[in-house]
């Protein structure tokens, strides 16, 4: 099973440490990426790490920690300033803005303004505590020698034979089941962009197979926008990705529905959005990383065919 994990990004379906289930820290999603250079990159929960690792068919040995290189690009901030992972310096900027509004709030409704700031500070403190606990437990779990087995999925009536998810057990008996964030075969698949979403509502595109994305391991994205070819850059960071520098590489004119799709998609690619995503090898679901899911916009892709 170990060989099937290389090239993929994996989240924690569940984690048990010291006999207790570990809860998420304010929506943070720890993740692991097994690379073929003998390292694992990941996050303990909004805290990146890189370690030496030896992954075999049934065993994983986690070695010393290594420096984490600086990211090649900085993700855009969440639209509501409260994504799952706080951007460095964001809280100080928010506090500064709140201080700037303090005098005005006191003049208009001092009591409610102070109550709001107190509530926000308490919420932030609670989130910090949950996140610190999550990081400590994930870090404690992911150490030393771990055995690798499979957790069989329940059968679905009328569906194919059930598969299994990787399961890691450390030397202390702590257990984690991993789930796919980005399937190892992700870069071998052509994805058709079928719709855009707002919360749980989806609007379909009309261009069919004339609207597709090919993701490449170097971060380049190529494809077709409905009429014209395009290129862009995709920056991956565990459970997140964002786009930069979209550019049309042809200049054709097509049927009106295709051109409408193209303008819609191109505009979305230019937006400063940091997406949470799941790419399981069949589809991709991207959703804006915001604190209020009712504000989230996203994109939905389906697998056209293996390239």
What does this structure look like?
This protein is α+β, with helices and mostly antiparallel strands. The protein folds into 2 domains: 1-184, no CATH class; 186-306, Beta Barrel (Lipocalin), CATH 2.40.128. It has 2 helices and 18 strands. It has helices spanning 90-141, 256-270, and strands at residues 9-17, 20-21, 31-34, 39-43, 48-55, 59-66, 144-152, 164-170, 175-182, 189-198, 201-204, 211-215, 220-225, 229-237, 240-248, 275-279, 283-288, 297-306. The strands form 2 sheets. It has an 8-stranded antiparallel beta barrel. The chain has an 8-stranded antiparallel beta barrel with strand order 10-12-13-14-15-16-17-18. Strand 17 (283-288) and strand 18 (297-306) form a beta hairpin. The longest helix has 52 residues, at 90-141. It is globular, with a radius of gyration of 22 Å. The model has no long low-confidence stretch (mean pLDDT 86).
Question: How would you summarize the topology of this molecule?
Answer:
Blueprint: E1 9-17, E2 20-21, E3 31-34, E4 39-43, E5 48-55, E6 59-66, H1 90-141, E7 144-152, E8 164-170, E9 175-182, E10 189-198, E11 201-204, E12 211-215, E13 220-225, E14 229-237, E15 240-248, H2 256-270, E16 275-279, E17 283-288, E18 297-306
Antiparallel strand pairs: 1-2, 1-3, 1-9, 3-4, 4-5, 5-6, 6-7, 7-8, 8-9, 10-11, 10-12, 10-18, 12-13, 13-14, 14-15, 15-16, 16-17, 17-18
Approximate helicity band = 10-25%
Q: Give me the number of helical elements.
A: 2
What is the total tally of β strands?
A: 18
Question: Based on helices, strands and strand pairing, what is the structural class?
Answer: alpha+beta
Euclidean distance between termini CA atoms? 24 Å
Quickly count the domains.
Answer: 2
- Strand order of the main beta sheet, please? 1-3-4-5-6-7-8-9
Biggest beta sheet attributes: 8 strands, antiparallel, barrel
Q: Give the topology string: H per helix, E per strand.
A: EEEEEEHEEEEEEEEEHEEE
User: Judging from the principal axes of the Cα atoms, what is the shape?
Assistant: globular
Strand residue content: 35-45%
Q: What's the rounded overall pLDDT mean? A: 86
Low-confidence stretches: none
Overall radius of gyration: 22 Å
């Amino acid at each position: 099973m170990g060989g099937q994990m290389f090239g993929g990004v994996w989240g924690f379906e569940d984690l048990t440490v010291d006999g207790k289930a570990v809860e998420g820290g304010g929506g943070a999603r720890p993740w692991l990426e097994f690379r073929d250079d003998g390292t694992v990159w990941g996050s303990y929960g909004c805290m990146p790490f890189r370690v030496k690792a030896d992954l075999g068919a049934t065993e994983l040995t986690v070695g010393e920690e290594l420096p984490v290189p600086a990211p090649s690009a900085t993700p855009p901030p969440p639209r509501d300033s409260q994504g799952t992972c706080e951007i460095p310096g964001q809280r100080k900027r928010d506090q500064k803005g709140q201080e700037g509004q303090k005098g005005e709030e006191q003049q208009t409704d001092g009591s409610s303004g102070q109550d709001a700031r107190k509530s926000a500070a308490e919420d932030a403190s609670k989130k910090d505590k949950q996140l610190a606990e999550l990081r400590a437990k994930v870090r404690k779990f992911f150490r030393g020698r771990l055995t690798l087995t499979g957790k069989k999925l329940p059968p679905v009536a009328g569906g194919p034979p059930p598969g299994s998810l990787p399961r890691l057990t450390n030397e202390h008996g702590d257990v984690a089941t991993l789930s796919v964030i980005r399937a190892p075969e992700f870069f071998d698949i052509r994805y058709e962009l079928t719709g855009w979403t707002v919360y749980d509502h989806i609007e379909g595109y009309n261009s069919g197979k004339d609207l597709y994305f090919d993701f490449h391991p170097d971060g380049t994205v190529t494809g077709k926008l409905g009429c014209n070819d395009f290129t862009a850059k995709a920056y991956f960071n565990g459970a997140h990705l964002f786009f930069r520098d979209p550019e049309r590489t042809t200049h054709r004119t097509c049927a009106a529905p295709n051109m409408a799709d193209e303008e819609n998609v191109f505009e979305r690619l230019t937006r400063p959005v940091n997406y949470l995503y799941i790419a399981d090898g069949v589809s991709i679901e991207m959703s804006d990383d915001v604190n209020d899911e009712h504000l989230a916009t996203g994109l939905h892709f389906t697998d056209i065919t293996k390239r």
